[in-house]
What does this fold into?
Amino acid sequence: MEAKFNEEKDKYVIDGLYLPRLTNILTDVFPMEIDPYYLEQAAIRGRIVHSMTEAFDKGDFTNEIITDDHGFLNYLSAWIKFKTDHDITIDKIKLIEKPHGSRKYMFGCRADRVLVWKDSLTIVDIKSGMFKKADILQTAGQMIAFNEGKKPSEKVKKRLLVYLYADGEYFVRECTSKMDKGIFLATLTVYNYKRQK
It folds into this structure.
């Protein structure tokens, strides 16, 4: 279901209801034990990589997007390589960084891409860091939110994680376990339980 993002409140909005972010839910239930400095550096890298890939896919990419390279262009090269290797042409990309939310389960998220992969509509989450089990649950939540209220023919059928690396290479992980949705919903239950008064 489509949603809007309210930057000031750091929440998604559907019909006037403020919903927590999917990433905040996962971080709350599965906190990362990492030095805050490195966590902040990873967040900065993630924002830059997402901005570059988004601009590239929208045809808006210019070198001005990157003020100081630090090897960030290699992440974009990895994304371009993924798209080339898997024949992801512009006509196969259906949505880019589109906010969605679930009114039923009360959370919001943003799918990096919704595209056609192996002849199926697919949620793609782009990562520039290391694999975490919560990444898989993130795609499960994104699928729930995207598919809510849609006809069967309009629903996402597959979930994909694409890890981009500083050496210009990439790794693809298809998320296929039918248990992921249930585990995500259990995670959401724990998050909501922690907030009960």
Remarks:
- The domain at 4-194 is CATH 3.90.320 (Lambda Exonuclease; Chain A).
- The mean pLDDT is 90.
- The helical segments are 22-29, 36-57, 72-85, 133-147, 179-194.
- The chain is about 40% helix and 25% strand.
